Structures are given as C-alpha cells and as structure tokens.
Amino acid sequence: GRKTVTSEGEEVGTLRDVIVDEVSGKIEYLLVEPTNPDLEAKLEKNEEGYYLLPYESVLAVGDYIIVDRKQI
C-alpha cells in the first residue's frame, strides 16, 4: 500500500504486490496500481493492469518507494 514515486518526484502509483523468483527467492518486480495516467503508455503492465516495475529500479524504501525513472 505504499506510494511509489520516481526519482524526479512523479507519482507512479500504489504498491499492491511483488513477484518473487521461486528458485532464488529474489524479488523481481513490484506490482504497482497506476495513479498517473501520463505514464500509461510508457510502462509495462500485467493482465490485471498493474505496472511491472523491475526491482533493480528501486532506489529507496521508506514512507515512499522511490524508483529510478530511467530504469522503469
């Protein structure tokens, strides 16, 4: 339920779930419910309409999840 924003301060959406590699146990993607229609065409979505943000794009986790805009 944490808000997700880019490193430039753009709101992306709200974290809803994560996708974990069952073998390695590593987080692969964040599933984020969109709240910014300006990013719709630029970001990959799953069949439920959630953004698939690569975990490698995460810069910080605190009150917000901050992701690198260049990696999403």
Q: Could you give a quick summary of the protein structure above?
A:
This protein has 72 residues and is mainly beta.
Description:
The model has no long low-confidence stretch (mean pLDDT 94). The radius of gyration is 11 Å and the shape is globular. It has strands at 3-6, 11-20, 27-34, 51-54, 58-61, 64-67. The protein has no helices and six strands. It starts with a strand and ends in a 5-residue tail after the last strand. A hairpin with a 4-residue loop joins strand 1 and strand 2 (11-20). A six-stranded mixed β-sheet has the order 4-3-2-1-6-5, with no helix packed on it. By secondary structure, the protein is an all-beta fold.
Topology of helices and strands:
Elements: E1 3-6, E2 11-20, E3 27-34, E4 51-54, E5 58-61, E6 64-67
Parallel strand pairs: 1-6
Antiparallel strand pairs: 1-2, 2-3, 3-4, 5-6
Question: What average pLDDT do the residues reach?
Answer: 94
- Measured between the Cα atoms of the first and last residue, the distance is 19 Å
Categorize the overall geometry.
globular
Q: Helices and strands, in N-to-C order? A: EEEEEE
Helix content: under 10%
Radius of gyration: 11 Å
Tally of contiguous helical segments: 0
Q: Give the strand order of the largest sheet, numbering strands 1, 2, ... along the chain.
A: 4-3-2-1-6-5
Helix/strand/pairing category: mainly beta
